[in-house]
Amino acid sequence: MKSEKEGLIFLSFFFIIKRKKWERKERSMLLFENQNIEFKQEYVPDIRKEVIGFANAEGGTVYVGIRKDGKVLGVEDPDGVMLQIVNSLKDALAPDIMPFVRVNSVEIEGKQVVEINVTTGTNRPYYLREKGLKPSGVYVRKGSSTQPMTEEGIREMILQNSGRSFELCRSMNQELTFHTLQAEMQKRLIELGTSQMRTLKLIGEDGLYTNLALLLSDQCETTTKVALFQGTDKEVFRDRKEFTGSILKQLEEVYQFINLLNKTKATFSGLDRTDMRDYPEEAVRESLLNSIVHRDYSFSGSNLVNIYENRMEFVSLGGLVSGLELKSIFLGVSQSRNPNLAAVFYRMRLIESYGTGIGKIERAYKTYQFQPEFETAKGVFRVTLPNRNEKQEREERAKDHVDTMVSLNEQKSLIVQYAKENGSVTRKEVEDLIGAGTTKAFRLLKELCEAGKLEQKGKGKLSTYVIK
Description:
Blueprint: H1 2-29, E1 37-40, H2 47-55, E2 60-64, H3 78-92, E3 93-94, E4 101-108, E5 111-118, E6 127-128, E7 139-142, E8 145-148, H4 151-162, H5 179-187, H6 194-199, H7 211-216, E9 224-230, E10 236-243, H8 247-261, E11 264-269, E12 272-277, H9 281-293, E13 303-307, E14 311-317, H10 326-330, H11 339-347, H12 357-364, E15 373-377, E16 380-386, H13 390-422, H14 427-434, H15 438-450, E17 454-457, E18 464-467
Parallel strand pairs: 1-2, 9-13
Antiparallel strand pairs: 2-5, 3-6, 4-5, 7-8, 9-10, 11-12, 13-14, 14-16, 15-16, 17-18
Helix pairs in contact: 8-9, 9-12, 14-15
């Protein structure tokens, strides 16, 4: 019995010592802030940022009532502080973060401390409702501090955690207006209320605007740039214009701008006149629609249209959808990167059906010598339309140049023949002979002298030119 009693006493001392060690270990763990621990001396609204930072990262704990240096001060009214914290988190953060937060009162060193345990959220990124999905409203825990996220980081987190396409992810801007979209829908007698916006995927399951809504809104961040070059390369820049606003507004304004640059050339066969524009209007329309509907909007660059004397290029970011090759398009395979944007355009009768655009572009050039080109590289897709009139104009310019050269040679022959028959020729006689001005007459005589056919005698107005 004595040995059993001694054993129980030994075990009691063992557990007391062990507990003391655990308490010392726990206190030592609270001496410093780190990746998963944050101290607050008292409740302040900034606690919301810390909670967001932990929920957007690997989770962590905020202790209210502990000084930055780890000294435990405690809180006088833990129940009141906990209520204040819970109400603040419910009202100020979005999406709902409370399933991932637990607020308790714990005793540390004999004092009451409020403990806020935060686990990694499943609907990241979390943000301050009043600031929205931008760096001033989204935070993440890094090391022992909570920092604002960059816009690029926010976009990546949205894509990683949504498991959905870019167009269905939450828009970083929730203060959107839809004046252009409403006007276009009204013209087509299509109703656009909250229920229709949900059906069209402009509003997500969480009741927030999606990136599709951002594209169609007046606040659309993507722009379209049209550049006009002289000649056939980018060496000489003539003009550039950037179009902003709703993607629908850009579509209309860019098309009208290109239409002004799309010249018409008239040709005649007898009494019959034929007008032909540089670029088929159908091909321009389909190329522009293709560059807008199928591009990857997770890239922040602009849609590009480059216009040269001999061609027009439509450049869109993103390349082909993963799994497709360029030859797949010509086999009739179509898979839109933005099916919901395409569905909106289809409902608005801007496109007829999926996968028909390339065929329309090719048919527009069916009887023409030069054909449109479709090229893809990593992250980019380009459609090039040849200028149908440029080749004919180039041939006509070359013919005019040849005719001019023939005419000049004939005029020089007349001058030489006149000098042979009359022994010499003067500048004034050349002017009368070929009906030229003083400058041209002098230039032709100089060229004949340089060619060794004539020789100048005298100077100035008294100069004469004889056969050499």
